[in-house]
């Protein structure tokens, strides 16, 4: 089996997804991956900043297609969710159509769609969230997930508007926000509802502490990539979502 080539479309100020995604998929027991990025200018996480960033999508898709990836992940969750219910379907379809016009058969996923996919894979109905966003944007994320059929039982917004600063939020602050949530009747915790807010070292620790499945935008993205490639979902040390097929690979 050759190396699976993964394309990432990321905000220009995002550095976390390009570290967490390779770190996750490098643990896969039966496949190798390479990662190739293209960037959309964005510094401030605001409705205006996100709209300006999304306007660069077609250029970025053309650029990443030149690398001939097998899968492309549109890696900005909130930029999709601000578009309203079902926007991840529209964005993924538009990108796939653009790629097909240029002769690319790359599969297309988005961080927004991957989070929905991951929560459904865990059979989660009642969900709690930690987000880095300003409250009005966090409310749009909550509304988006509720439109997908989930009940958001509790959530926190850390209210960091500068996307560079989001990438520097310490794990202790994220865990403190998670501990402040009412998790008594929750099926799953999204400990980082943002591909830029670092959380990979927290996922397993939080699962042990809270006793429920814990996922992040990054682990959900990795799950979606593996499923799209028909590869076993068996990544150690990254939460229950990425252990779905571990028994199969161990047998």
Automatic annotation (TrEMBL):
Note: Reaction is initiated by nucleophilic attack of cysteine at the double bond, yielding a covalent succinylcysteine-like intermediate.
Binding site for substrate: 14, 76-78, 133, 163, 195-196
Protein name: Maleate isomerase
Task performed by this protein: Catalyzes cis-trans isomerization of the C2-C3 double bond in maleate to yield fumarate.
Top-level EC class as recorded in UniProt: isomerase
HAMAP family linked: Maleate_isomerase
Catalysed reaction equations from the record: maleate = fumarate
Classification of source organism: Bacteria, Bacillati, Actinomycetota, Actinomycetes, Mycobacteriales
Molecular function terms, GO-annotated: lyase activity; maleate isomerase activity
Gene3D superfamilies registered for this protein in UniProt: 3.40.50.12500
Annotated active site: 76, 194
Organism: Nocardia farcinica
Keyword annotations of the record: Isomerase, Lyase
Family as reported in the entry's similarity comment: Belongs to the maleate isomerase family.
Superkingdom: Bacteria
Residues with PTM S-(2-succinyl)cysteine: 76
InterPro entries per UniProt: Iso_Racemase_Enz_sf (IPR053714), MaiA/AMDase (IPR026286), Maleate_isomerase (IPR028615)
Subunit structure, as described in the record: Homodimer.
UniProt KW Isomerase keyword: yes
EC number: 5.2.1.1
């Amino acid at each position: 089996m050759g190396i699976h080539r993964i394309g990432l479309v990321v905000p220009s100020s995002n550095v976390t997804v390009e570290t967490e995604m390779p770190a996750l998929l490098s643990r896969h027991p039966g496949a190798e991956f390479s990662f190739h990025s293209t960037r959309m200018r964005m510094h401030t996480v605001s409705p205006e900043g996100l709209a300006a960033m999304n306007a660069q999508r077609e250029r970025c898709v053309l650029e990443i297609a030149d690398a001939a990836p097998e899968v492309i992940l549109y890696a900005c969750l909130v930029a999709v969710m601000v578009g309203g219910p079902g926007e991840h379907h529209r964005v993924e379809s538009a990108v796939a159509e653009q790629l097909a016009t240029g002769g690319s058969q790359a599969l297309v996923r988005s961080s927004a769609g991957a989070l929905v996919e991951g929560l459904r894979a865990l059979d989660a109905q009642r969900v709690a969230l930690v987000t880095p966003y300003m409250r009005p944007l966090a409310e749009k994320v909550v509304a988006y997930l509720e439109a997908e059929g989930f009940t958001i039982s509790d959530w926190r917004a850390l209210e960091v508007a500068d996307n560079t600063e989001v990438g520097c939020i310490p794990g202790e602050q994220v865990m403190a926000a998670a501990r402040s949530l009412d998790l008594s009747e929750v099926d799953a915790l999204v400990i980082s509802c943002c591909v830029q807010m670092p959380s990979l070292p927290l996922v397993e620790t939080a699962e042990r502490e809270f006793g429920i499945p814990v996922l992040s935008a990054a682990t959900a993205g990795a799950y979606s990539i593996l499923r799209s490639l028909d590869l076993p979902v068996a990544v150690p040390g990254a939460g229950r979502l990425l252990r779905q097929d571990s028994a199969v690979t161990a047998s």
